[in-house]
Every structure is written in structure tokens, then in C-alpha cells.
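Changelog-linked ticket: 6-O-phosphono-alpha-D-glucopyranose example.
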Amino acid sequence: MCGIVGYLGHRDCSDVLVDTLSNLEYRGYDSAGIAVFDAQNTIQTVKAQGKLQNLRNKLEKNGRPEGHIGIGHTRWATHGEPSDINSHPHSAPRVTIVHNGIIENYQELKEFLIGEGRTFLSETDTEVVAQLLDYYYDGNPLTTIDRVMGEVSGSFALGIMFMDFPDRIYAVRRESPLIVGVADGETFIASDVTAILQYTKNYYLLEHDEIATLTKDSISFVDKRLVPIEKELKVADWDKEAAQKGGYAHFMIKEINEQPNAIMTTVNPRIKDGLPNLEECGLTLEMIREFKSITVVACGTAMHAGLVGKYVIEGIARVPVTVDIASEFRYRNPIIGEGDLVIIISQSGETADSLAALRLAKQRGAKVLAIVNAKGSSIAREADMVIYTLAGPEIAVASTKAYITQISVMYLFAFELALAKDTVSVAECKRLTKALQQMPEAVQYVIDTVDETCKFVGSQLITAESLLYIGRGLDYALSMEGSLKLKEVSYIHSESYAAGELKHGTISLIDDDMPVIAVATQSDLMEKTISNVVEVKSRGAKVILVCTDACAAKIKDGIADYMITIPHTDELLMPITAVVPLQILAYYTSINRGANPDQPKNLAKSVTVE
Ligand code: G6P
């Protein structure tokens, strides 16, 4: 989604803005722009459709605005196509702004402003806010912003420059995230802290409807009644290196390689005396024993992590689990209330639908546990309990290390629940916990051994137009994530099917143009999955089989066209290692097709609007 930055200090502002915007590229965007106060205190705006490089080229060719205070934006189009005109910043005579979010009542506000003689250049909802700020401008930016906040509905994070106040930037948010950074003689605004890590780790989290006023040497905050407030200074615990590629060609492959460490960092601190211990987040054995039902709600990859969680929890703790897509949950009047547990999984902690689902669950009296990667994000702050996945910043749009840590947390939770429910013995729980702690090593081994095969198989998929992933049980839950990964980064259409469901329709699609990726890591289901493999192969499909070495030893040669084998570990934990070849395969297929796996077209890392 859109990214916002702002800078005040001694450095060349255009440089800092483009630099910090490049750190937000991962959020997904289709145009970019900056606006800077020049030496004459007029605002110079430069915008360009497409990648940041287009903006850089334009700045190079036409000259950069010279100055030390300015705002910048990467736009993910919602209202109006990607174009120079629709790009941010947007201006009215006395105001220039950047915006992330959606102004829901922009149409009626626009009609009102047109009636008042205002004209518009773009099709965006953002320009309406710029015009409205200008319309209500009373010489006092704070009262003007406050007035406008009372008129607009929807979600927004805004960076605002008033022509009359060339030494400052104003920032305000409702729903959409925004932070305010501070260094010595420099201040910043940004959609998230990774944007400014190379300059400072110190920042404030702006809360809903708070307004920040920044000069290069000062930051002040007011609440929605315009009463001054003090805010706690936070220190990011992510290093700037964590948000850089560090020698890898892409963030996606870097983050795949970071998975062993991410699992270790996430799992180890939650183990006490050989057993999972989630008390740090407020989850005691007594509490989890009492929950009447468990519902996992999330979007995208995080929802797939919930599906693995369902199989694991139901498998060992014998507690029924519902998994729901957040955008469905929030509008289907879910049967949730007191005594129920709702688990919200989210990497960013800002996904609009997941946040709305959280609020709905709380409103109905359910307890909400959030499994979140971004510290201090909205979902983390609003949940009753939080378990952080300690994956570090995930920059590639396609989630990899966040997923692996999300499922690792689901395992910890399932083991603890099983203990609480007495469905496993302490000894068995200790054995499973130990096996989970050995996963970083197993994942490292898989990364080291499957790379070449995945590269080769990826090269065989470049001409495919459509693919099927099949699996049973945990392998089915996992293949949903494998399929999503491939379609996200390679743009090949792909679906995941429960292998046993193929005969009920989908097998009619199988021919020699439809490769099938079968996942078989569960020994009790292996024979059944292999029968499905034989069925699709005899109808012409090229089959890529991802299976354990134990499975590979049992099947006949020639059953699959390509085999990607991984070591057999505890079967319950197989998704942790088996996801790795699926991720690497998606990565190489993307590259072989000339795509950029880090920034897939049309996708955004953090979906902060509905
Ligand atoms: C977007 C991202 C996905 C992510 C999903 C949920 O679609 O591109 O990678 O899985 O949002 O995001 P969250 O931050 O809530 O995990």
C-alpha cells in the first residue's frame, strides 16, 4: 500500500526522501513523488508514474528541488489509474499533502468543493483532502486539520505542508499507520520504521486522531481535542542491515535464508524446562483450558499459517478450530462471544480486514490473541494478548520467514493446549518441543540441498500457464501456501486442491499443459496421494513431487517427472521444512520468467485498506 515519508533537517531533502521511499518500495506501489520547500519557501513537487527509478530520472533530468524540508510518497492506486497526475503529493493553493488510506466520503466532499468553485486536477480522494484543508484554512494548521478530520471518514495517514509554515510538517493518522522519527537536529515521518532505520532507531508511534507538529529540532503532539500530549519515545530493535539485501540478489531469497534463525529466535525464548511457555503473553494453562472454541482469522499467507495450525491443534489437542478469511469473518455475523478465543495472525499487524475482525471479536466478548511480527502495530496494541513472531523485518512482498515463524508459534500454542487438555503426556510434549527446536537445523539443511533442483525445476515451469498443487492433510494446508507463493511472484495461475477432491471436477483440467506439484510428507496419507499422482500423470500432467526421503525410497521410479526430496522429520512438523522447496521454487520460477520477486505487480505488502 502507499508509503509516506517526510524529512526535516540539514541534509539534502530530495535525497533523503527518495532514499527513505526506496525502503518502503516493498509495500507495493505504482508511482512516486516528492514535494520540498525550496530556498524561496515555495513548494516544488516532482512526481512520476512507475518505479522510483522513473522519479530519480526525472529529478536528474529536470533538476532536484533544493531544500531541507519535504514529504514523499509511493502510491498504490485506488482512486484513479497510476499516472503522473494522480501521483502524490497533491496540492491546493496553500497546502501540499501525501496520503495513505481511503477517504470514503470523498465523492460527496468533492461535489461540495466543486459547488464552492474548487477545481480538481486528479481523480484521487487525496486531492479532496488537500482542497478541504485549503478551504477551511484559518491561519492555524492545527485547528484546520482538526476541522477536516471532523469532515472526512475512512482511513488515512497524512503528511501535510502549509505554505505559510515552511519550517514544519504536520502528520496525522486514523487507522493507517504512521510513525514520527527523531535524530539529532533531524526529524522524520514514515509509514513504518524500516524506512528511516539508516538515520535513526528512535521514533514515536502516532495514535488514532493524534496530530504531530515537526520542525527539525522539535516534535509536539496533540490529541483529538487539540490538547498537548506527551508520548513515549520508542527504540526500534531492528538493525538497518536487517532491512537491506546484504549481498543477496533479492529480499525474498535473503528472507528464505534467514528462516533457520527466525525460527530459533521465535521458539527458544518461549520454552521453559523443555515445554512451551506462553505466559509472557498472558496465556496460562488454566486460561487456555477454558476456551470454548478457537477461531483463527487472517489474510493471505497468515491465513495459511492458521490452516496449518488447525490441523496441528485438532490433531494433538483435539480442540475444533475454525479458520476464516478476515474479509469474510467481519461481514458474516460470526458466532463468537464470551469464552471463545480468536487468534489473529498478521505479519504487519496493520491489515485492515484483520484489524476489523479483531475489533468485532472483542466487541462480542471473545478474547483475542494476536500473532504479529511488527511490534507496536495496531493489531498488537489492540489484542488482549500478543505473541510476537521474531522474524525481523520482512521486506519482500511474498511472505516467507513470517510464515515459518507464524506456524512455529502455532506449534508452540498447540503443544501447550494439548498439555492443558491432557491429550499429550508431559514426556510426549517435551519430545515434540525438542523436535521443534531442532527445526532450524533441518530447515538449513533443506535450504542447502534443494536449491539446485528447485532452480532447475523452476526453469521447466516458465511456459506454464496454469498449475495445480495437491496434497492431503497437513500437505494440503501447506500446498495452499506453496500455490499462493508461486502465483504471487511468477504470475502463473495456480490453485491448490485437496488431492482426494480432484476427481470431483478439477481432474477434467488435467492434460500435458497442466503441471501438478504434489506434496507428500505424511506417511499415513502417502499411498493415497501417490495414487492421485498416478492418475494425473496418466492424463498427461508433468508431476513435480515434493516428498520425504522415506517416501521417495518407497515409490517406483518414473512416478514423478521431477522429485524434490527433503529429510523425514517428525511428521507433525513437516510443514516447517516442506515449505522451503515451495518457496525456493516460486522464487526461481519468478526469476526465470523475468519478474521481480520482491515487488510483484499489483500486490502490496501491507494492505491497510479494504
Ligand atoms: C498481503 C501480503 C501477503 C500477506 C497478507 C496478510 O496480501 O502481500 O504477503 O500474507 O497481506 O498480511 P499480514 O501483514 O496481515 O500478515
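Closing comment: Example verified and attached. The radius of gyration is 25 Å. The chain has 19 helices and 27 strands.
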